[in-house]
Specification:
The structure holds 3 protein chains of 3 kinds. Chain A has 2 helices and no strands. By secondary structure, chain A is an all-alpha fold. In chain A, 19% of the residues are buried. The chains are: A mainly alpha, B mainly alpha, C mainly alpha.
Chain lengths: 58, 227, 252
Amino acid sequence: MSQFLSMGGYGGYVWSSFAIFAIVLALDAVAPLLKRRRVLRDLRGRARRAQKRSEETA
Amino acid sequence: MSYGTALSACRALFVRDFSLVWRQRGDALNPMLFAIMVVVLFPFALGPEPNALARIASGTILVALLLAGLLSLDALFRSDFEDGSLEQLVLSPHPLPLLLACKIAVHWLTTALPLLLAAPLLGELLYLPRSELPVLLAALALSTPLLSLIGAVCVALTVGMRRSGMLLALLVLPLYVPVLIFAAGACNAAGQGLPVLAPLLWLGAGLALALVLAPLACAAALRISLS
Amino acid sequence: MNPLVLWFHKLGSPPYFYRLAGRLLPWLWGLGLISLAVGLYGGLVLAPSDYQQSDAFRIIYVHVPSAWMSLFIYAFMAVNGFIALIWRIKLSETLAMASAPIGAAFTFICLATGSIWGKPMWGTWWTWDARLTSELVLLFLYFGVMGLYQAIEDRRQASRAAAFLALVGIVNLPIVHFSVNWWNTLHQGSTVRLFGPSLIDSRMLWPLLVMAVATKFLFAASLLSRARVDLLELEAGKDWARQVALADGDAA
């Protein structure tokens, strides 16, 4: 196992490359989810305001 | 209703732009002053040894002129956009690429040409070898119009933005890379006594291509950002 | 009308695309993660180590697929930008702009892993190799497209301007590559060859191809989820967007 982790002495280089790959792609996957939450909150707020306005005029 | 010929429209545009520059002739010298200041800073940073300076002279001058050109690009459409005459230009019945080519030509004549004339002086400040000077001037004569044409396309995309300076640099610099490589390549080849014709011909080919395509692209970009 | 053309027209409508993408997304994520796991296992465990580079060559399994993706995504963005400019299809604008950050991410991975790979192999973090330099310029082009898109207020105008810039960039990219190649040979002759003949071994090749497929799926998944959100934001005033938001609020 430790032989696998050391990667023939290049462990630091190999694992940091794979870590960068994983971290950047994970961030890329999470970003739209966060933005989705924000957009949905905006949309619901907009809908509430529209409803209130229509109740006031009615 | 008659509009006059496209040629007369171009002439009118030339006269107008030149007289605008002439009325603010103080501003017109700013890019040159900037280039001189950049070049003067290099000996302070690198030490005054003639050999070291001579080695980097042509590259430094090219980069200084490129940056000075970048600084003046912003003004290409700025005042015309603010007083609304740019929209009149877009609405005019004459071909927009032709009119824009005229504007770019005036811009090149008033900002890049003085820089070109100052280049021998800058070369002297950095101990540029005499054998490299004609090649540097030839490379500049071919590359500065190319830079103006490419830059105009990017300016057309950012026209109407409040603060476009940094963004404009980001858009323009990747497009400037090949031009700088060939211009500097010609100067380096001259420094090493190698033939210089090939990179200059590449620059010429690029210029011929840009002369035709850049005004068209510039017009398309302007229509997008004014829509 | 031809059913295929009809389907194409339907695909262009935001609510239809939103629903379709929502149904496709779990599949794309699933396929992407499975092929990623297979590719990583094959690359890190099954593939034998290289006789010249020992185990350091395994960086290839993230570096090369990312490099392929960086170019593939740029081409995808430019094609969608072209469609957006000519036919003014809203979906194409959204897809082009949604792919820019993903492309920038892959370009960044390619540069970072390439420089990590270069340290043990070439003894330096960076060389002005033609491919590395072109990739760096590509990253700047992505940043330019994203920056222009962010800087313009009107969303549709912003995406059209940025799409135009992407098209200018795709003309520029081969020129940059050619000029950097020319410049590099002038300065230092041949550089270290990245791809030795040792790569031909099929036990090394198949995980690379699996990783290439995995990154394609991950790109598609990320693209669709970005495009969905962007469409929702773009169409905030429309009825279908409000219904989506309210339905989601009830579920949460």
